Amino acid sequence: MSHHIKQLQVLSPPTPSSSSSSSSSSRPPSFLSLSLCLQEAMRRTVPALLFFAFASLFLFAPFFSLHLSRTTQLIQHFPISIDNINYAIFHDDNNNPQLPATHRALHVSSIINNHSAISTVSILFPAWELLLVVSPDTPISADDTYVCLFQNNDTSPVRFSKTLPFSNRTTLTCPMPERVKHLRPFYQPVLARSSEKDARAPGPGSPEPIRWNFLVYESFSTENDVVVFVKGLNHRQGVNRPPSDFKCVFGDSDKKSVKTAVTSSTQEVFRCQHPNLTELEDTFYYNEQQQQERRRQDVTKFKISLEIVDGDVVVPSVAYYTRPRLRTRLTTTQTTSSKPDPDHDVCACTMVYNVAKFLREWVIYHSKIGVDYFILYDNDSDDNLESVVLGLRQEGYNITTLFWVWPKTQEAGFSHSAIYAKHLCKWVLYIDVDEFVFAPYSWAHSAQPSKHMIKSLLPKHSNRRNNNKNVAVGQVSLKCNDFGPSNRKTHPAEGVTQGYTCRRRFEQRHKSMVLLDAVDYSLLNMIHHFEMKKGYRSRKLSMVEGVVNHYKYQAWPEFRTKFRRRVSAYVVDWTQALNPKSKDRTPGLGFEPVEPKGWADMFCEVRDERLKMLTQRWFGSPTSNNGGYRMLWQT
């Protein structure tokens, strides 16, 4: 150690010698001599500093290694990637998600931005898009122009979206500016009118946006329980945490909440017991008059969330509990003790995004073959879909559109539909807007479509003998023929059934018609087919009995829009370089929205014009232009 001290001492400039002459001691040192002195000092000091560094590492490495190993055992880092955003949820020994302190402190409280007169909750969606949820009591007008104001005073334009149907809350979206993406942390933006000049940007102490990958986003109350939809708990398809890991929480804080047991945990769907309404209302200190008024207006709404019991974590929530409405309508053949019949025998349900140009053909065709009612889960379309729906309604078609803004939640949306539509529909056909049901053998020579056609595909005898037990058919599966671009460069104005006539030889997927009474309590589904409850089975139709024409690989300008995002929670997006050989991917297509060479002629192995000719006969009017047809759905 003394050696090192001596080496370090050379850093101090030497004191003048007492034997030096008076002339030399009074003269300041030259620049050259100082430079040489400093160089010599550095030459001697660097080895000493390196020695100290290695010695410290040698002495403290065991302690650091022990601390690191203990920390690694306690916390496992579980990354979740959303497009080009990487978020992290930490898990403890029991695999319970642990969020940063800012998220844990949120619990089930609303996020209110104190800097703005407009109270909002912000959710960070994929592709750096922010969804702003506005309280129904907050004055906001679509006639005004708004901006999102960020912490660095950058702004981005706001687009009015639609109203959440089950909580009556207005939603808006705005993109996150490029410069804000690099800030840490980034705060929830302020929603401000463009005309406001004194709006204050968020800063330290402001809440951060809720991350989309850990959120209670919707709920639905049945007569017997509450169904809650949650991102971030059951991450992998087929791997679900037990219901005992969770509690349903009704209320806005720890001190003002009521908890009930979770009875089912599957994918993003959780089922809970109803809370005791008297206990819940008493918890929130409503007086008798307030309680009676709320019951009269049927506006009993409380924040609902899910608690991870072992981790003492409440998932952030934008969902609300609503007291269920009891169904009292009876048919002429029913008594008060019997179950009401559904309003419609066959409905069709699908999730849509920007399908306005395709919708008329799909609705008119399936309505004419017997679909009574259409349920569209709108994934935030901005292509004038509402106007097309309104036009179809005015023509007499029964259509309901539910605003379902949540990305990559097709399975959850279909689970929601199985309870939402249970009193409306007996059977539900789950297909997409580019898919058309067709019975090649029995319909081929029909002069006109019939309302009984779709029902002809349903079981004529509900039960069959199987292992000495009666097992009813609760689901009918139809295989798909996948059609290619058929040398089309643009969308065919006469419709997809007319424009695409060349397909792949072998089927890849199937779609289903589901008896809602047969759906399992868990509401488990895997893209267009459901798990059946005990006592029910699925029946697969042959491709002669019934098939789905899937106009999947359309003209490139239409197909490239799929790169926005996949709708399934468990199917990777087109732009993610994962699972390149999956059947959910398109052969020959990379990970970028770039048209492959020869796209227009791809997937053409069988020329199939059967449905084209049939729909011309049913819906076409001959024109003088080259022997063509004008179809009923063309406007």
UniProtKB/TrEMBL annotation:
Gene Ontology annotations for the cellular component aspect, listed alphabetically: cytoplasm; membrane
Location(s), subcellular: Membrane
Molecular function terms from GO: glycosyltransferase activity
Region of interest called Disordered, as start-end residue ranges on this chain: 1-29
Record field: compositional bias (Low complexity): 17-29
EC number, as in UniProt: 2.4.1.-
Topology of this chain in the membrane: Single-pass membrane protein
Name of the protein described by the UniProt record: Glycosyltransferase family 92 protein
Organism, scientific name: Prunus yedoensis var. nudiflora
